Amino acid sequence: MSSKTQAAQAGQALWAKMPKANAELFALTYGSLVTELVRDYEDPIEVNNQLERIGHSIGVRCVDEFLSKADVAGLGLATQCGSLRDTAEVVAKCGFKMFLGANAEVGGFSPDQKSFSIYLQDNPLSTFVELPPADESVGGDDLRKLKYSNLYCGVIRGALEQVNLKVDCNIVRDTLKGDDMNEIRVELKEVLADGAGDDYKEE
After folding, report:
1. Taking 80 as the threshold, does the pLDDT of residue 84 lie above it?
2. What b/e readout covers 143-170, taking b as 16+ CB neighbours within 10 angstroms?
3. Using an 8 Å Cβ cutoff, are 27 and 124 in contact?
4. How many CA atoms lie within 13 Å of 135's alpha carbon, on the beta-carbon side?
């Protein structure tokens, strides 16, 4: 059985065991958070940074729950991540499915196998969301710089940091901006020494 199939089946098993939240309430709550950040900072670039930081804090805490639930379910995911490609499949097929119920795909690996893309056809965070058009007179141009779902980048970065992978994440395609799908680009920067990431240690 391929690692992709194993990861997909594991993700479905983990999702079945998770307590479910109302998807509409979840999306509206996240929308309220983004709206508050926009009001507080008035700069979409800084809002992007804040969303990434919040996501990072979430990511460093998700790993323990993710691995413990996988172990209880007998899925042994830790032993499946022998390469970045395997890790990418687990993040997309298991992580996104377990915590969001979202189906994600992996592709676009670079020739050196150090970067890849995660594709989301449907984004649970952006339900009910519409960004103002770029030509809108008040704030339209600025808000087009907003990466509404930048939380994902922080979560991925924080989670992978806890398994000793330092990565950069960027949203490169966004359906809120007219793209046909959502794409998160992940690039491996460094394999860290054993131990939790610095942020996790401090907190």
Report:
1. yes
2. bbebbbbbbbbbbbbbbbbbbebebebe
3. yes
4. 0
